[in-house]
């Protein structure tokens, strides 16, 4: 049986930054409130004319350059996104075009903030089945394009960016265990309506406090569920690489793992919540900064709209 292993990571963040002080000029808020309640100091925001596939393409190039691969070695592209350039074609097809790769499949996965874990799990299954050997997996989102900047309760959270990995067939794991799950009953707590009222643009509507509580409880349970049957225990985990939704959610998960925050890769202060991009961005930062080292054990976990959630226990 074949396993899969991450062999390269990459990232891309748009140049333009939106600080808490910038937001103070848009609505009634304060840098102090945002830092205390979310851990966010700034986010990166796309320029006019820049789209999700641009971010995804640059993150993919970064990962390909860091690997030993020619782009034509890749035999599948999966992009996790909630903010595609167009309703169709997919961002994955746009990335394929921009990379100039022909005759391979490319498709998007939509599981909002859990999207990267869903895409990784899908790619891992394809490799385990023997169908593909080298898969480009990208998480990319332009959340600023679906943010209502008159709604201070959630406009403070979102940012734009992309992270990419190359997953390769391997004799050893790699991906030790992944979980994906969903519950469609809570749609109204976090969604973007297709036909919003009063001809307003399609923007995120969230009951933040309710989402927060369910996220913390769910992520609490997922830790035990992920470790079950793997032979690994909490103490074996070197790094937590979580979806960056709110620093208080990260702290709660770290506490559940009996982990100090210096073992958690935190990017929310600089990136905000970049939805499907947040885990691969954090993973790339952990690896390129030299903090995450070869053969270390990492737990990645995410919770998001749907509700969807997921986790991956991996050896880098
Ligand atoms: O990644 C996908 C999943 N998403 C999440 O996990 C997001 C989870 N939710 C959250 O991160 C938090 O709920 C928020 C950051 C969105 C909000 O924080 P909160 O601590 O839950 O605030 P709240 O909505 O309960 O509001 C508390 C108070 C309210 O004032 P009163 O009624 O107590 O006087 C709000 O009006 O804070 C006020 N408030 C603000 N004040 C200054 C809400 N937003 C702001 C703001 N600046 N931006």
From TrEMBL:
Keywords: Acyltransferase, Cytoplasm, Fatty acid biosynthesis, Fatty acid metabolism, Lipid biosynthesis, Lipid metabolism, Multifunctional enzyme, Transferase. It catalyses: malonyl-[ACP] + acetyl-CoA + H(+) = 3-oxobutanoyl-[ACP] + CO2 + CoA. The keyword Metal-binding does not apply. Gene3D superfamilies: 3.40.47.10. One of its GO terms (molecular function) is beta-ketoacyl-acyl-carrier-protein synthase III activity. Pfam families: ACP_syn_III, ACP_syn_III_C. One of its GO terms (biological process) is fatty acid biosynthetic process. Residues 244-248 are annotated as: ACP-binding. Its EC number is 2.3.1.180. It is found in: Cytoplasm. Its main location: cytoplasm. Residues 107-184 form the Beta-ketoacyl-[acyl-carrier-protein] synthase III N-terminal domain. Residues 228-315 form the Beta-ketoacyl-[acyl-carrier-protein] synthase III C-terminal domain. Coiled coil: none annotated. Pathway: Lipid metabolism; fatty acid biosynthesis. One of its GO terms (cellular component) is cytoplasm. Catalyzes the condensation reaction of fatty acid synthesis by the addition to an acyl acceptor of two carbons from malonyl-ACP. Catalyzes the first condensation reaction which initiates fatty acid synthesis and may therefore play a role in governing the total rate of fatty acid production. Possesses both acetoacetyl-ACP synthase and acetyl transacylase activities. Its substrate specificity determines the biosynthesis of branched-chain and/or straight-chain of fatty acids. Belongs to the thiolase-like superfamily. FabH family. This is Beta-ketoacyl-[acyl-carrier-protein] synthase III. The gene is fabH.
């Amino acid at each position: 049986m074949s396993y899969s292993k991450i062999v390269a990571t990459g990232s891309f963040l748009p140049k333009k930054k939106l600080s808490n002080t910038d937001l103070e000029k848009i609505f009634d808020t304060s840098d102090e409130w945002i830092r205390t309640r979310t851990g966010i100091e700034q986010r990166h925001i796309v320029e006019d004319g820049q789209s999700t596939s641009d971010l995804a393409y640059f993150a993919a190039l970064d990962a390909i350059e860091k690997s030993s691969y020619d782009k034509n070695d890749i035999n599948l592209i999966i992009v996790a996104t909630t903010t595609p350039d167009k309703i169709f074609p997919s961002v994955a097809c746009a990335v394929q075009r921009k990379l100039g790769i022909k005759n391979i499949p490319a498709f998007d996965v939509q599981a909002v903030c859990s999207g990267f874990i869903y895409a990784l799990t899908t790619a891992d299954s394809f490799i385990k089945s023997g169908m593909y050997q080298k898969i480009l997996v990208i998480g990319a989102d332009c959340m600023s394009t679906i943010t209502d900047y008159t709604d201070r309760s959630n406009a403070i959270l979102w940012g734009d960016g992309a992270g990419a990995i190359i997953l390769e067939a391997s004799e050893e794991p790699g991906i030790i265990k992944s979980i994906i799950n969903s519950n469609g009953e809570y749609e109204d707590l976090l969604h973007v309506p297709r036909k919003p009222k009063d001809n307003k643009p399609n923007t995120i509507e969230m009951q933040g406090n309710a989402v927060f509580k369910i996220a913390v409880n769910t992520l609490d349970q997922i830790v035990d569920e992920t470790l079950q049957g793997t032979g690994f225990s909490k103490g074996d985990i070197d790094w937590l690489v979580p979806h960056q939704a709110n620093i208080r959610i990260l702290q709660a998960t770290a506490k559940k793992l009996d982990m100090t925050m210096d073992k958690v890769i935190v990017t929310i202060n600089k990136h905000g919540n970049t939805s499907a991009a947040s885990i691969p961005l954090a993973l790339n930062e952990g690896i390129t900064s030299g903090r995450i080292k070869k053969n270390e054990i990492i737990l990645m976990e995410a919770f998001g709209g749907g509700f969807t959630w997921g986790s991956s226990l991996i050896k880098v």
